[in-house]
Fold this sequence. Notes:
two-stranded antiparallel ribbon; globular; 7 helices; Rossmann fold
Amino acid sequence: MKDQVQTIFKGWAKPGPVPPAVPVAGEGESCAALCGHFWVLQLENGHRFSTDDALTAWYGTSWAPTVKTGLDLGSGIGTVGMICAWRCPGARFVTVEAQAESVALARRSAAANGLVDRYEIRQGDFREPGVIREEETFDLVTGSPPYWPETDGIVSEHPQKRACRFEVRGSVVDYCKTAAKHLATGGLFACVFPHAPHQLERLQQGAREAGLVIVRKRPVIFREGDEPLIAVFAMMRAEDLPEWFRGQTWDEPPLIVRTKAGAYHPEYSAVKLAMGFQP
């Protein structure tokens, strides 16, 4: 198989395992390179994986103390969960997604990427009892919550687009509460959310209500000179931290995606390498 696979792409050597197959896109679908030799199926006119998702996976796998088990909330087409699984090859993952269409795409992608034995995709609303069992805990929980209430914009008629952008099934508060409930001792919850002041307040409120401490956050600037639009956050349960540590957050310098000239910023190119992307 390896002899038949393109391991060098534009001078970059693709790292990581070679999966059994490349997913086959059907009508109205496309197949996109995800990380290393992994691919992801997505609708041509639906939710497509984004920088936000990739950075959530990178941040969580970079700062979790250990990852033997992982949980991805609102997993969509599987972007975050599969990148996490690629970066943590010995870990087992559970992902939860409510939309049947997204679940079907994710299952086909996971099978082609050779993840079936350690990657369980559940269909359902993670807030509903039994979707995640009461006793289940995970070293790493990830999530890319929808950013806005349905009253805050023009809601798309496409169910995938609507659910990934607007709070159709809960808000960032629900993500924080579910993550806190299912974190293993000393585990970490990583998520992405807008950086605007009123949005930061919403996330901070969610963390407080869930008993979480934002131990570090990093704003993301998409073009040098602009204001940060989003940030990635790493949280732990307050009860797992010394009391003196519970009231502080390490604010990292912004991660710049592109320079003023439009090229990828040197640090972001290095981040892409760490995620199995072409720099």
